[in-house]
Amino acid sequence: MNTKEYILNQYKMYPKLELQDILKFIYQSSYGCEHMVTDYAEVKKRIQDETMNCSSSIEELDGDYVRLPLSYGLSASTLTSLFILSAKPSLNAKEKLEEKINILIHLISNKELPFSLEESKVILLKWKKDGYPAVHHSDAFNQLYHPSYRLIHKKFVPFLELFKYIDNNHPSILSIDGRCASGKTTLAQFLSEIYDCNVFSMDDFFLQPHQRTKERFNIPGGNVDHERFKEEVLIPLSKHQDVEFSKFDCSTMSLQPSILIPYKPLNIIEGSYSMHPNLQKYYDYSIFLTVDKEEQLFRLEKRNPKMLNTFIQRWIPLEEAYFNAFSIDKKCNLQINTSKA
Prior knowledge:
By secondary structure, this protein is α/β, with parallel strands linked by helices. It folds into two domains: 3-157, no CATH class; 170-337, 3-Layer(aba) Sandwich (Rossmann fold), CATH 3.40.50. It is 45% helix and 14% strand. The protein has helices at 3-13, 19-31, 40-49, 76-86, 93-109, 117-129, 139-145, 160-169, 184-194, 214-217, 226-238, 293-303, 308-326, 328-331; strands spanning 59-60, 65-69, 149-153, 173-178, 197-201, 243-245, 248-249, 254-255, 259-261, 266-270, 285-290, 334-337. A hairpin with a 4-residue loop joins strand 1 (59-60) and strand 2. The model has no long low-confidence stretch (mean pLDDT 94).
């Protein structure tokens, strides 16, 4: 949808809204939620205190944010974290807002919205003169529609069901497998910012030189040291023990000195081959991330143009052989396509 369609859709959804409710919509679409953040404890308290009697539908704004209802099913802690992580300054927010205001005036002029043009211009001129302060919903809107939501960045939306699962089921060991450039590392980073958890990467368990044989690479999923990963990481985690392991350093083709990772109740295993059949039984939950081919190649080229052909000719075929041999996507509890994320 374009800005005009978004504004008209607001009127369709909330036919009794007032002009200030439209202004709040375009303000949130432009500025997001940075202005609403004080500190974690205060934000969480407000969420806990607020009545949650709204619908559970996510409402998309005209920009990078969505309105996430408090009744969606996330814990107050998770919703607070998502809200604060979303509160980053929006680029060119004032310019975006003024573009939307011009469209709003055009809609009012054409009588596509039931507001007085002259009165609207007076209100908008004062709003501009005051420096475009944040806008509250009208009393009528609050009484009729009972808004109860927080703004979050739309980049989190594909993973909301996962966050809800974690909040309600408290898994101990969680796997993120999937295609290269599908966002596995990004998702793991989100989880580490939202939850108090450990993150372990399969990239730290590439084969050592003596393991890199033709026979090994011919085995689907054989191009990572899943045996060492199982012994050094998964078995200790399954016993709620601290983890001591050595990362493989590709620059030196050798193992680094071992490191000690204290046990935490939530542990994220991120990377292709994390759902190898030798490892699956250790997971409480698993996610498979996929991405459309065109988008995958675009991301890989953007990440490292010099490595694109290597991925196309070597790493992607090895991944696909592993996915196909073991039906990895079907073995995972949740599948997410991140092409539009």
